[in-house]
Amino acid sequence: SDIDKGTYPHYMLKEIDEQPAVMRKIIQAYQGEDEKLTIQPEILDALQEADRLYIIAAGTSYHAGLIGKEYLEKMAGIPVEVHVASEFGYNMPLLSEKPLFIFISQSGETADSRQVLVRIKELGHPSLTITNVAGSTLSREADHTLLLYAGPEIAVASTKAYTAQLAVLAILAAVTAEARGRDLGFDLVQEMGIVANAIQAQVDMKEEIEKLAHDFLSTTRNCFFIGRLMDYFVGLEGALKLKEISYIQAEGFAGGELKHGTIALIEEGTPVIALATQESVNLNIRGNVKEVAARGANTMIISMEGLSEDGDSHVLPTVHELLTPLVSVIPLQLISYYAALHRDCDVDKPRNLAKSVTVE
Ligand code: AGP
Known about the structure:
Structural class: alpha/beta
Organism: Planomicrobium okeanokoites (Planococcus okeanokoites)
Subunit structure: Homodimer.
Number of helices: 13
Subcellular location: Cytoplasm
Active site: 355
Bound molecules: 2-deoxy-2-amino glucitol-6-phosphate
Largest sheet: 5 strands, parallel
Catalytic activity: D-fructose 6-phosphate + L-glutamine = D-glucosamine 6-phosphate + L-glutamate
């Protein structure tokens, strides 16, 4: 590639490290003259006119969409559905009267998403693409585009594009909320600054996080991620990251679902990584950790200051509760990176995978 790794051994590590700078870049890019966050009026109009938003995406971008739904519903008050592009393409649900389609794609070239865009355009529905690549197919073919400003992402495993997607979705939700006269009760620019610092603190803790990866994952064949609410969605992303680059079989689950089946898989030493950043379910997820620990699981708890307990494996600095995914995903990215490195896997180019999936 013509993008230099510099002193980094892998693009993935470089891209993980770039995330604080990407956060600052995004804030700047979306600030208007008066430093207030702004979105093009045509896009705000499109959101205002819609009675329901349909987020379409694949892989990591789909996981960002799950969090995007939380942002757009909780901040802007617009109902949202999130769909896997390859499923939606063949089984379109009943649509609302005034849908707006939002395509989330790092590359802007994912064939499964492109097919959906072609279909919904035929039906006459409006569309917005959120992408890292200006001039990409999904950007050119949609009515509107919002850019991620993450800089080129080379590693197959998506890292900075995911956090950039979350940041842009938060900005879109906050600015739409304002346009609709809804009071958020917090200043997103200020909270995003706190997030950028918290991400920096995480990438500065590589040695500690590498040790966690070593202690929990060096010999395992499988690993489970559990969480509730947004922590569940971040767990899905953590599991995808781990399986794609380290080839450890990994799955993410909603903590409360364990007893409905998955807990049967827990054996002596099975690694279970739990996220605990959501106050309203902190006791619940900790209960779930006790349930798996009682069956022999090797548990790692990643919690947030203010919700942490003695003995937690890793404690994140406090950020606004809606923005926790931007920070909690960082140790998961690094754990995957080091797990893959310890197994001598090809971190930047995992087997069987392409950076963007341009065929169906
Ligand atoms: C992420 O680590 C994966 N490599 C993959 O899931 C990716 O997110 C997916 O293929 C979607 O790509 P896109 O964002 O470019 O559309």
